[in-house]
Design brief:
heterodimer; A: 461 residues; mainly alpha; 2 domains; B: 367 residues; two-stranded antiparallel ribbon; 14 strands; elongated
């Protein structure tokens, strides 16, 4: 079920919120677990069993790690949880990628599995891994209540597209959390902001991208419009989803970590990754990069570690070579930034410009169907595609989308947030806020009813 | 404190709006069809273990919830207004407004479609017309975009290239150019079609080219149809537009004509049974039908006309009748051209290929 859908907004969510607040405190996690399983089963009824297995397996491993007194047995159960979950990811997400790559190299034709990707498998697997690793490290006690643990794993607000909420961050709130009208109001406001970002901005950019791909009159300018449109589309889509997840969490009394912090204002690639999908970046840092030795190793080992982490980051995003290349590209850029300190001495404007240019290029690679398409897209952007600079169609769509581009560019900066903060304690702000929120709800509903199907980009990960 | 109170009240109002919509969504009676969109609406899907396991229940429920959402048309209008005026998009669902007319973006020229249409017309000529003694004419009906798009800054296909392609590829058909006998006012504001009461010029041009008496304005009475006409773009654009009045051109000659629809139904030129139809344009010769004949018992001539046509032909054909004993309308989108010999033969009639640029640019429906 999509957040940006009529069944979610006007059937599922109101029913869950009402039920949740009507039942006594001790049943609230049970309501969340049942609602989350229903939410997951709505899109993937056959994969519900996979979700239930994951809950049971990680719950059991967590308890076993906590109960064993000997280090080797603790490690054994940790390895079991890692191996089983990585195997599941391998089978459902990566098997066909490896088989097709193997076939391409060897010329053989090993049959592919062609399994549908279970929604959100990368997100909930990483969440569960953080749980067993943290229990193993002694950072957090194992959860004894299977309902509470199930509610954590399957929690529908962040189940399918993050942020990757670590168990340690919500362990206390799973047991005891505050419910208030204020939490509900703040949570719904955050949810509606995210809904607006997704439906009003991201989906309209997606429409332009579709028009670009269908066009028979592409031009250099149209390619750049496409690249910038996707850069804004993926930001508003994913950060919009994160806003919705964080807002819904707040409604139910949870405080999830932030996932975005205006990444397009970054002055270096390193800073970009500290502002973009922060929950994934910190997960890789804490559970892969630092255990590998981080930067406290020899130079060549450090280079190797960096590439390993960024290749995995690329692969996490998708089982295709363009994602691997996308990850490696960032690995290379980060190494260059480390080795060329002069880059950090450039004027701020120039640093922001180079980060933006590289990010736009990286997203063209990210969104391509294949490496060859990425190559031809990039060649066309830089005038090597034999295309005219501009066509009548390009001018038409530029005129048609210029306001959306301006909204997207301004919305990717803290301008709106700062304005909202300025108005926060004024009467005008107090009146404007609900008016704006009701407006967003109604316009978004209009878009949904008018009806194009618009899946979240990060569902495939 | 005051602001906190206002904020709490605001949040309460938001929650109340949300809950009201939820209540209506859950408990309002499902509607059978949408007038604005001219289509049946999804009904509640069947719930069973099979439909849940194969995911079809969920998929169908999504469609149901979208179709049956309370105030659906108003919400679509809210979206269109935001899209069109808020985001300043030049079109909404490919429909744009210019000079008070709603029109569809028809761009670019689809050469594959033009080639396909040419190949079907060539086949028609070779199979039926080549040695039949028929005189063949062709006219393309420009869509509204021909007059509206370019001068209002919208994308316009290369109409001249399309016309040239047909003139060049079909040398056996005499080309009749209708572009100078029409203008924007000849079309409905909310629909694709042209207005019959504005077609005397175009009909006259066709008659002149085919050597028959053109329609004379004084022979007709313009009669308004009482039911308001909501054209196809009215629903698609979902923008605030007024419904229109449809007029039919009545005459003594037309009252005496007998119409046979698909070899079965006997009716009049203006089929008033269709007044209740979803598309009021069906009043003209019963709408989209594969094979229609008009017999004109008061004809002063034995000449016959066969029109291969799309829906634009339904409203102009009555204005061509005065010059012919019979007019046969064939829509080869609904009937296989190869089986046409079972319904009629060709023996020296006038044959007119009359197609709108909309169909010629999207011709895959021609059989």
């Amino acid at each position: 079920m999509l957040f940006s859908s009529i069944p979610f907004l006007f059937y599922f969510l109101p029913a869950v919120i009402l039920t949740y607040f009507l039942v006594p405190r001790q049943l609230k996690n049970g309501v969340l677990l049942l609602a989350s399983l229903f939410f997951y089963g709505w899109g993937e009824p056959r994969y519900l069993i996979l979700m239930v297995f994951s809950i049971a397996m990680f719950y059991g491993c967590g308890l076993a790690i906590a109960k064993c007194s000997q280090k080797k047995w603790k490690r054994f159960w940790l390895v079991v949880s890692v191996v089983v979950s990585v195997t599941m990811l391998g089978i459902f997400k990566y098997a066909d990628f490896f088989v097709s790559s193997f076939n391409a190299v060897t010329g053989l034709s090993v049959p592919m599995l062609r399994l549908a990707l279970p929604i959100g498998i990368s997100f909930y697997t990483f969440q569960c891994l953080s749980y067993t690793i943290d229990v193993y490290r002694g950072n957090v006690p194992a959860q004894k209540n299977p309902i509470s643990f199930g509610a954590y794993v399957a929690l529908f607000p962040q189940l399918i597209a993050g942020p990757i909420v670590r168990y340690v961050d919500v362990a206390r709130e799973l047991e005891s959390r505050t419910h208030s009208w204020d939490n509900v109001a703040v949570g719904l406001r955050r949810f509606l902001v995210g809904l607006g970002k997704k439906i009003l901005i991201a989906d309209n950019f997606a429409l332009l991208m579709k028009l670009f791909r269908e066009s028979g009159e592409q031009s250099v300018l149209f390619y750049w419009m496409y690249a910038i449109a996707f850069t804004l589309n993926i930001y508003f889509d994913f950060s919009g989803y994160s806003d919705m997840a964080i807002g819904l969490g707040r409604v139910f009394g949870f405080h999830f970590i932030e996932n975005f912090n205006y990444p397009y204002l970054s002055k270096s690639i390193g800073e970009f990754w500290r502002r973009w999908h922060m929950s994934l970046g910190s997960w890789f840092r804490d559970y892969i990069y630092i255990p590998l030795g981080g930067n406290r190793v020899s130079k060549w080992r450090w280079v190797l570690n960096t590439f390993a982490v960024w290749m995995l980051t690329g692969l996490w995003h998708g089982a295709a070579w363009n994602f691997v290349l996308w990850g490696v590209m960032f690995g290379v850029l980060l190494l260059v930034e480390k080795w060329v300190p002069a880059l950090q001495k450039l004027p701020v404007l120039l640093r922001r410009a180079y980060v933006l240019l590289l990010v736009v290029i990286s997203f063209v690679l990210f969104n391509a169907e294949s490496i060859s398409q990425a190559g031809s897209d990039l060649a066309a952007m830089f005038g090597f595609g034999g295309l005219p600079l501009v066509t009548a169609e390009t001018v038409y769509y530029l005129k048609s989308y210029i306001v959306l581009f301006l909204v997207g560019i301004v919305g990717a900066t803290p301008v709106v947030r700062d304005l909202a903060r300025k108005l926060e304690n004024t009467t005008v702000g107090a009146v404007l806020e609900p008016v704006l929120m009701i407006g967003i709800l109604l316009v978004c509903t209009g878009y949904l009813v008018d009806g194009s199907f618009s899946p979240f980009l990060y569902f495939r990960f | 404190m005051q602001n906190k109170k206002i904020r709490a009240i605001g949040a309460g109002v938001l929650a109340a709006v949300w809950l009201c919509l939820t209540g209506f969504a859950w408990f309002s009676q499902p509607k059978a069809s949408s007038d604005a969109e001219r289509r049946p609406l999804e009904q509640m899907p069947q719930l069973s273990v099979d439909t849940v396991l194969d995911g079809s229940f969920m998929k169908d429920f999504e469609s149901y919830s979208l179709d049956q959402f309370p105030l659906r048309d108003s919400f679509r209008q809210v979206k269109s207004l935001f899209h069109y005026y808020g985001l300043q998009q030049k079109d909404n669902n490919d429909i744009y407004l210019a000079d008070g007319y709603a029109a569809k973006l028809e761009y670019p020229l689809n050469q594959t479609s033009v080639d396909y249409a040419v190949s079907r017309f060539q086949r028609l000529y070779e199979k039926y017309l080549l040695d039949s003694g028929c005189k063949v004419y062709m006219a393309a009906v420009p869509d509204k975009g021909y007059y509206l798009a370019e001068e209002n800054g919208y994308l316009a296909m290369d109409y001249e290239a399309m016309f040239a392609a047909f003139r060049q590829a079909l040398p056996w058909a005499q080309w009749i150019d209708l572009t100078d006998s029409l203008d924007t006012g000849c079309y409905y504001r909310t629909d694709t079609h042209w207005r019959q009461e504005k077609l005397l010029g175009a009909a006259g041009k066709l008659c002149q080219a085919m050597g028959v008496t053109p329609p004379a304005a004084e022979d007709y009475t313009q009669t308004a149809i009482e039911r308001p006409f909501y054209g196809v773009y009215y629903g698609q654009a979902a923008l605030p537009m007024e419904p229109e009045t449809m007029y039919i051109m009545e005459s003594q000659l037309l009252s005496g004509c007998k119409v046979t629809v698909e070899m079965a139904k006997k009716t009049q030129v203006y089929d008033m049974e269709q007044l209740g139809s979803k598309d009021l344009y069906d009043v003209f010769l019963s709408g989209s039908k594969s094979f229609v004949t008009i017999e004109n018992p008061n004809a002063q001539t034995d000449r016959e006309l066969v029109i291969f046509r799309d829906s634009f032909g339904s409203s102009i054909a009555p204005l061509l009748v005065q010059g012919y004993k019979t007019v046969t309308l064939v829509d080869i989108r609904y009937i296989n051209m190869e089986t046409l010999s079972m319904l009629m033969d060709f023996h020296g009639q006038d044959v007119l290929l009359l197609y709108s640029t909309l169909v010629l640019n999207n011709s895959s429906t021609i059989k």
